[in-house]
Each structure stands twice: as structure tokens, then as C-alpha cells.
Design a protein that fits this description.
Strand order of the largest sheet: 2-1-3-4-13-12-11-8-9
Strand content: 25-35%
Largest sheet: 9 strands, mixed
Radius of gyration: 16 Å
Helix content: 10-25%
Number of helices: 5
Oligomer: single chain
Order of helices and strands: EHEEHHEHEEEEEEEEEH
Number of strands: 13
Low-confidence stretches: 211-230
């Protein structure tokens, strides 16, 4: 099973790649939308602001294909800003559109949370409907993961919220809908449980690999894919 990791210049790309490789993922790094046709699953890492991320995704042509790719059922993991850009809009540095895969808006953490951005470890609590989801296998409820963010996802449909975290308010830290998975924290910086979550995603994607980017009309590239550490 091949996993495509999207390269749009995200600062956490090397760490995300190394962590995925550490759990046995067979991956390649790409900035070409047409390469997604060769992937059985896709990972969108991220740090920074949603506006900059959307601009970069638009420049390389990924913003145009990712909504259809997710809709096709291709297993997809968004990390940190890679989760936030899945929403409809963001208020970060002014209102702007995001990918619109999940209804809702990216909003700033409240001042009463204390120090913003939130940087450091915080607990993720599973919603009961998702407690037995394979993404959480071997990871106790209330496990600490590593966060770095000033904004959070205010989603329209609470049914997609699989995990929540408290920081001034209770915000969604894990979203799951069918084969779409997204996390606000950085599993690649979250020690053994972060690696376990990535391992679980790889296993989950392997069992769900019946669809791929080819079903959304992305042409198969004739250029061989390669594995990259950067």
C-alpha cells in the first residue's frame, strides 16, 4: 500500500515522513496532483497559518483535487493545519475560504485559555461513539498529545468530532468521517502514542484501500514515484 504525503512546503514535513516511515509506511512525497492517482492513502501535514497553506495548495494545484479525493473514499489524514484547511472558512488573518470538505470555520482560541498559542502536551478525550475506532487502538482515553496552535476547528456537525481537548473551551482535536481522519495535534511529535496513532492510520487505510485518487479523474502519472526523507 502506497501513501502519498503532500509537499507544499510545510515545516513539519520531514518529521511527519520520518514518523510514518518508523511505523512501516510505504510512502512517497509529492507536490503533483497527478501523483495522487498512485496512492492508496494521502497525508496532509501542516504548521503555520491556514491562509498561507491554502495559497500554497492552490499554487501546486492540490486545492482543486483534494475535496474530490476525500469524497471518493480515499483514506486521508490531515495533521494540524492539514486538519484546519479541511473546513469551509477560516478567520485567521482575515476571513478566507478553505477546502470545504468539513462544514465549519477555523476560529481563534479564546483569550481565557491563557497563553496563545497553545504549545505543549494536552489530553485528548474520545467521544463515546468513537472510543472503539481503530484509530485509537492501543491508545488510552485521555492520552497526552503535542499541540502547537492558536486556532481551532469549530465544526458544524458534531457527529464528525471523534476526540476533544480542553484549552479555554472544549474544541475538536480529532475528526473522523468515513475514511477521513484529521488531528489538531502533531502525532509525529507525540512520542510512542503519536507513533501508535500513525500506525493505526496506516493499518486503517490498508483495510480501507478499495478506493483511490484515480476515481476522481486524476490522470495516472508516467513518472515513477520515489520515497523522500525531506
Amino acid at each position: 500500500m502506497k501513501i502519498a504525503v503532500i509537499n507544499y512546503g510545510a515545516g513539519n514535513l520531514p518529521n511527519a515522513v520520518r514518523a510514518l516511515q518508523a511505523v512501516g509506511a510505504d510512502l512517497f512525497v509529492t507536490e503533483r496532483p497527478e501523483d495522487l492517482s498512485q496512492a492508496d492513502a494521502v497525508v496532509l501535514p501542516g504548521v503555520g497559518a491556514t491562509a498561507d497553506t491554502m495559497q500554497s495548495l492552490q499554487q501546486i494545484g492540490m486545492a482543486a483535487v483534494l475535496p474530490d479525493l476525500v469524497a471518493s473514499g480515499c483514506p486521508f489524514l490531515g495533521i494540524c493545519v492539514g486538519m484546519q484547511v479541511l473546513l469551509g472558512t477560516s478567520t485567521e488573518f482575515g476571513d478566507h475560504a478553505c477546502l470545504g470538505v468539513v462544514g465549519g470555520a477555523v476560529q481563534r482560541l479564546p483569550d481565557e485559555a491563557g497563553k496563545i498559542p497553545q504549545i505543549g502536551w494536552n489530553q485528548v478525550h474520545y467521544r463515546p461513539a468513537f472510543a472503539a475506532h481503530p484509530l485509537f487502538a492501543g491508545i488510552p482515553d485521555g492520552t497526552d498529545f503535542y499541540f502547537v496552535h492558536s486556532y481551532y476547528c469549530a465544526v458544524d456537525d458534531p457527529a464528525v468530532v471523534a476526540g476533544q481537548t480542553d484549552y479555554g473551551l472544549s474544541f475538536p482535536s480529532v475528526l473522523i468521517r468515513n475514511n477521513l481522519v484529521a488531528v489538531q495535534f502533531h502525532p509525529e511529535k507525540s512520542g510512542r502514542y503519536g507513533l501508535q496513532l500513525l500506525r493505526n492510520f496506516v493499518d486503517f487505510a490498508s483495510r480501507s484501500r478499495g478506493t483511490s485518487g484515480m476515481e476522481i479523474g486524476i490522470g495516472r502519472s508516467n513518472v515513477p514515484t520515489t520515497t523522500s526523507n525531506s
